[in-house]
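Schema walk-through. Below, the input block comes first and the output block second. Nothing else is stored per chain. Lengths vary across the set, and this one has 84 residues.
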Amino acid sequence: MSIGQVKALEFEAPPATFSLRREKAILVANVKGDDDGYCANRVRLPPETPGRLLALELKLLSGYDDLYAQAAQAAAKLLASVRT
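--- output ---
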């Protein structure tokens, strides 16, 4: 884990408490207080690359994002100037 990454998330919806935490490449999900009393699930979760995370975020956007368009144009200009 590095600065800025979410390590754990917990929320309550009485009578249940849900928690998600990352232990290296494992995502651990726990539910306490539901009808069964306790449920835990562990899933191997490979670390995502920044490009893949950005692609997933962009899929959630609808319409046109001015800030992203400006950032992409600025990045393209930088790349063009480095290659010449």
